[in-house]
Amino acid sequence: MKRNNLNDPRYYLNRHIEWLEFNRRVLEEARDLGNPLLERVKFLAITANNLDEFVEVRVSSFLQRIEHGSTEIGADGHTAEEELQSVSSAMQVFVRDQYKCWNEEILPALAKQSIRVLSLSQLDAKASNTAKIFYDRRVAPMLTPVTVDPSHPFPHVLNKALCIAFILRKRRGGNGKPYFGVVTVPRTLPRLLRVPSSTETIDYVFLHDIISFYAAKIYRGFEILGSAPFRITRNSNLYLEEEEARSLLEAVDSQVAQRRKGEAVRLEIDAGAPPEIVERLVTTFELDQSLVFRCKGPVNLQRLFHLYEETPRPDLKYPPFTPRQVRIGHDADSMFDAIRRQDVLVHHPYESYDAVVNFLQTAAHDPRVLSIKQTLYRTSSDSPIARALLEAADKKEVTVVVELKASFDEATNIRWARSFEDAGVQVSYGLVDLKTHAKLLLIVRNDPDGKIRRYAHLGTGNYNPSTARFYTDLSLFTADNNITASVQDVFNFLTANSEQNHYKPLLVAPRDMAKGCLALIDRETRHARRGRPARIVVKMNALIDKPIIQALYRASQAGVEIDLIVRGQCSLVPGLRGISSRIRVRSVIGRFLEHSRIYYFENGGEPEMFLGSADWMPRNLYERVEVIFPLKDPALCQRVRDEMLASYLADTRKARLLSSDGTYSRPPAYRNRYQFSVQEYLMGIANGAGDDASNRPASRPARGPSVVYTHQAAVAGFPAISRHEPATEEPENAAV
């Protein structure tokens, strides 16, 4: 029979369309009646934030490639022009669905809960007076109205700044000629103003409505013929000539400043905007009509974060969750002794990130610690991690590898890098053309027995205590000599470009990670062909890399059962007869952002498990320094397999299953009376609920099935195949 050509574009989903599918799954959470109402508002705001970054980076890259005349064709067979066309069309549909969710679902639901978003004309006398006082005292002094004429050119509009455009006509003179006016809404002011209510409701009015209402005060002598709020999104890719820059720090700092002035990519404007305003803006910013988005509601739905944060209704939010504290020892000696005796694994956010902070803080103040080395990709502006490194700098050798090009966190990292340098920390910015995305912390200590030992923390997530409260990640603390020696080799690579032939037992990108992952998949393929147990279960954020996808296809053809838990974009097409009939793909979107990367290989009955910072994407495998590390302790492996992976494969509440046409749907069991939620289950374990089937939420959602903490598969069902539907046995070389 004819062997399949695995380069066939039909076997690859477009990564950008699949990213939009991921954002649609987030939008589904905004529409899910089982979620608390204000959490639905928050999910809607998250979709807007996600779309902003997508436009700033991904859509901008299409335009750059088109401008440069790129003829490159993606794995799915599309050129940049074709991708832009399909992506812009999909975005238009998505934006319409966002505003439909806001207008037809969330706004009425808020009103039923006595939470109202009103226009100025709907306010009573007391609320109107409050809005007027706020405008006069807080807003008006900060406004800078511009009227465009020969002596006043069109003002520069900052990236993502909310503005209001006006069509004006002079009341005296001017021969009836229309003028164009622009006012930038100050970013320091709240986008929603709460106003008093006489009906015991919680009432808000949007800031842009207040400015528009009182615009005649700043455009005296003009008649306002029309107005519309709008927002410009600019190209935010960084352009770096690292070889020519005096220092990477200066290069990135300069480019971050330029980001606010990049080429315009997208226009968002009120759906009721006068045609003259739309035409003027499209012409001024040289925009393609396909990237003009008319908003039937507030321009920039990110402003709804304020509604979530400021509304005092805890009953409309998730119940508070307190992570379980993991204490490793009670002082420095006992902490390091505990890690030396046994590896420690911590699962965030179900188990507190304090364990990581305490590990570093204890090391910073321990006189026996000789040196500390750490990578920093993203961290918070008030990071206790960074402060601990600063505190350690006076008494120890401290080296920090700071990634300055962490998208949209560059400014924070630049500030910390300068603070480190001022404190005497040895700061490295990694390697030219390679982002440092590995999550590594290495401590060298002179232990009480006189031996100098290395201790390491390796993680799947950033050293950011703020995001660790709602990102799911794993932290491994180990004194394993093979692992810690390899971690030191990675630091030598980052600071001195000193390459090793290998970094075993670690897989390190770009050195050998892609090759190592392919070898692990191919090993499962050989096991299957020889009739040995063969299975792959992988959890990650994205699966894009073509060689990895082809290796998974070959494994499926050989008989390997494969379950992929991919939060975001996935270019692999599951369920194709003769190609991927044994591959199943699911995505879980819930209260916490799924961020951990887990790799499980059955290995003929001798399973191996790895954790790491890398997704199976070209950028992770070839353009970054990444680390995947083995989980060696059998008890920890069993915990990850049975408590985590099995639970994700059993989720019927928040999981969506990928079909071969690129769309996602709920599992068949979603309509059952009782559903299983992996995140609820893991929160239950953290709170001591264990695996008791009687542990259910105290109250059922307003509508929809109940969610339970437990399931049989999580206890004993991992070896079973989690099929969407029975897989069809196909010979290796079967035709499609």
Structure write-up:
With about 725 residues, this protein is of the alpha/beta class. It has three domains: about 10-30 and about 35-315, 2-Layer Sandwich (polyphosphate kinase like); about 330-500, 2-Layer Sandwich (Endonuclease, Chain A), CATH 3.30.870; about 525-715, Endonuclease Chain A (Endonuclease, Chain A). The chain contains 20 helices and 29 strands. Strands 14, 18, 19, 20, 21, 23, 24, 25, 26 and 27 form a ten-stranded mixed β-sheet that branches. Strand 19, helix 16 (about 545-560) and strand 20 (about 560-565) form a beta-alpha-beta unit. The relative contact order is 0.09. The model is unreliable at about 240-245, about 250-260, about 690-705, about 710-715 and about 720-735 (pLDDT under 50).
Offer a few descriptive terms.
alpha/beta, globular, single chain, polyphosphate kinase like, 3 domains, Endonuclease, Chain A, 736 residues
How do the helices and strands line up, and which of them pair or pack?
Layout: H1 15-31, H2 37-67, H3 80-112, E1 115-118, H4 125-139, E2 146-148, E3 162-170, E4 178-184, E5 192-195, E6 202-206, H5 207-213, H6 215-218, E7 222-234, H7 248-259, E8 264-270, H8 275-285, E9 292-295, H9 304-310, H10 332-341, E10 344-348, H11 354-365, E11 369-376, H12 384-392, E12 397-402, H13 410-423, E13 426-428, E14 435-436, E15 440-446, E16 452-459, E17 471-478, H14 481-496, E18 507-509, H15 513-529, E19 535-540, H16 546-558, E20 561-566, E21 583-588, E22 593-594, E23 597-601, E24 608-612, H17 618-622, E25 624-630, H18 634-650, E26 655-658, E27 664-665, E28 674-676, H19 678-686, E29 706-708, H20 712-716
Parallel strand pairs: 1-6, 8-9, 11-12, 12-13, 14-25, 17-22, 19-20, 20-21, 28-29
Antiparallel strand pairs: 2-4, 3-4, 3-7, 5-6, 7-8, 10-17, 11-15, 15-16, 16-17, 18-25, 19-23, 21-26, 23-24, 24-25, 26-27
Helix pairs in contact: 1-2, 1-3, 2-3, 2-9, 7-13, 11-12, 15-16
